[in-house]
Amino acid sequence: MKEIILIFGGVYGGLAVILGAFGAHALKSKFNEDQLKSFETGVKYQMYHALLLIITGISFPFMETSQQIMGWSLIIGVFLFSFSIYGLTLSAASGKKLRFLGPVTPLGGLLLVIGWVLFTINAARYAVYL
C-alpha cells in the first residue's frame, strides 16, 4: 500500500505541474476569469494532496485499516474533486457543460476531509510511539 500511496503522490504532483502550466498558458485565452480560478483551485488542491500523499507514504506503515482508508480517501478524493473541476471548466469553455460532474466535486471534497481527519488521528496515534 505504501508504494501505491507514493506512486499516486508522485503522479498527482507531476500532473498538477503539467495542468497548472497548461492552465496558465494554453487555457488562459479560452477561459473566462471564473473558469480560470476554478481550474487553478483544482490544480492547487491536487498539489496539496499530492504532497500529503507523499508525506503519508513516508510516515505510515499502512498496516492499520484507518491508514488504508486514509490513503484511499485521499487518492479517490483528489480524483473526484480536482478532475471534476477540470471537466466542468473545460466543458463549460467549449459550451457543452457536463452538469453531472457538479455533484462529484463535493463528494471528492468530503473524501479529502475524511483523509485529513484520519491523517490527524493517525499522526497523533503514531506520535505516541515515537
Please provide a written account of the structure:
- 32% of the residues are buried.
- This protein is mainly alpha-helical and 130 residues long.
- The protein has one domain (2-129): Up-down Bundle (Four Helix Bundle (Hemerythrin (Met), subunit A)).
- The radius of gyration is 16 Å and the shape is elongated.
- It has helices at residues 2-25, 33-59, 65-93, 104-129.
- α1 runs antiparallel to α2 (33-59), α1 (2-25) packs parallel to α3 and α2 packs antiparallel against α3 (65-93).
- 82% of the residues lie in helices and 0% in strands.
Please outline the helices and strands.
Elements: H1 2-25, H2 33-59, H3 65-93, H4 104-129
Helix pairs in contact: 1-2, 1-3, 2-3, 3-4
Low-pLDDT parts are none
- Strand-pairing-aware structural class: mainly alpha
Mean residue pLDDT:
93
Q: State Rg.
A: 16 Å
- Put simply, the count of helices is 4
Name the beta content range.
under 5%
The helix-strand sequence is: HHHH
User: What is the 3D shape?
Assistant: elongated
In a nutshell, what does this entry contain?
The protein is mainly α and about 130 residues long. The chain contains 4 helices and no strands.
